[in-house]
């Protein structure tokens, strides 16, 4: 019989987070199909058997990766809101965030767009909330364009994200980070003209 007044044993601190962080990086660099739970455990410096304590299946860890990305996006957008007073400044700062990732995107693709594309092709798998990874920045950008008095705010927000994702795909395919850097300059000018 166990002592019901004793505190429940705690999970070792940090293992789950290390697994999610490793999964985020590996899924971005290698893709879903080429990444195994053993790869994730090794990269996280967690014994392979311990992975199942936190995640029963690969789909469970993929869901955690999607949630980690969504949280990162929310944090970034909240920081942009806090750092800038005007909607134009916020939008241009978002474009700078895009450009700051140009080297990594040229090597491995957009972390969000690539993951969404891969998950969309897994028709037999359960649904994930990956669409949120693209709707979060679109909804945020729409608010910024609306604050600028634009009636076509939704269209402009979609255009902004589509421009980034398209340039990210080209930068990755051609392994050329300048594609994103140049696109960011054009997008900044476009925002200034609105």
UniProtKB/TrEMBL annotation:
DNA-binding region: 36-55
GO molecular function: DNA binding
InterPro entries: Homeodomain-like_sf, HTH_TetR, Tet_transcr_reg_TetR-rel_C_sf
Domain HTH tetR-type: 13-73
UniProt KW keywords: DNA-binding, Transcription, Transcription regulation
Pfam family, one: TetR_N
Record's protein name: DNA-binding transcriptional regulator, AcrR family
Source organism: Amycolatopsis sacchari
